[in-house]
Amino acid sequence: MRKPLIILAKLVVALLSVAGTGLLIFEGWLIWHYEYGIGLPDERKLAALSVPAPACSTSNQQTYVPLSEIPPLVRQAAVAYEEPEFYERLSLNPLIELVVAITHNRGPRPSSITASVTRCLISLNPACCRGLDWHIGNIALMTRVAKTLSRDRILEIHLNESYFGRGSYGVGAASTAYFDKPLALLTVDEIAVIAALPRMPTLLSRRTDLAQDRRNAVIDRMLQAKIINDAEATTARARPLQFREIPPDNATQRRKL
Question: Which tens digits make up the pLDDT trace of 41-62?
Fold first, then answer.
């Protein structure tokens, strides 16, 4: 009776050993796959993006504006609307945020700005990811972006590489496309429109009624963040929303967008 038990115990130990080895091999494959296998930019490539310059857009419609030249209110409005705690939160790493959320018994805060930069960088290699790889690859790359790039640089890429509709990439091009003026001359209500565009660029560029609703939502966020006062918010909400008319030679392009 004792001998069969010893044989069974040895068999169980052997199976566990094989299973453990298999798990180690699988873990090693996962690490290799998401570090190198699917073509995501590694930390060395990301570090090369730390200087102010286009990161992933090749559109000739892009007008690149360094963060230092973007008016403070434009930067603040984008942060207030997309991710109010962008500069204050402990980490932009989605895995660390998940741990912090569980520890504090709350839902994880979205990393909208870092996520937009991550999608931008993934787009450099269209064949990179599909299905589950795309979702896990996003988390892996967001972790690298948060570790490698400063928050100012992440925000700069977001403001310059995001699509704003009307064929424009970045706040500089959007300011011209919608209001025919440079960033420095935008009013509070116009800044609020620009901040709202990246979430729904195509729809908001065509529906001024929806754009006005989103504009007012951004104005509310700006007021909550105390970057504008009550009088400025009231004046901005009251202003009629009017986009620049698209020149006739661009009408065909607009229908395609």
Answer: 777 777 877 777 777 765 555 6
231 & 137 share domain: yes
Looking at residue 108, its amino acid is P
pLDDT of the residue at 197: 95
Question: What does the pLDDT read at residue 91?
Answer: 74
Is it the case that residue 130 has pLDDT exceeding 80?
Answer: no
Residue 168 has pLDDT above 50, yes or no: yes
Question: Does 3 reside within a domain?
Answer: no
Handedness of CA 136, 99, 48, 36 (dihedral sign): negative
Q: What is the pTM of this model?
A: 0.76
CA-to-CA separations, 103 to 91, 108, 143, 147, 254, in angstroms, rounded: 14, 10, 19, 22, 48
The answer on 66 and 24 residing in a single domain is no
Q: How far apart are CA 107 and CA 105, in angstroms?
A: 7
Same domain, 117 and 244: yes
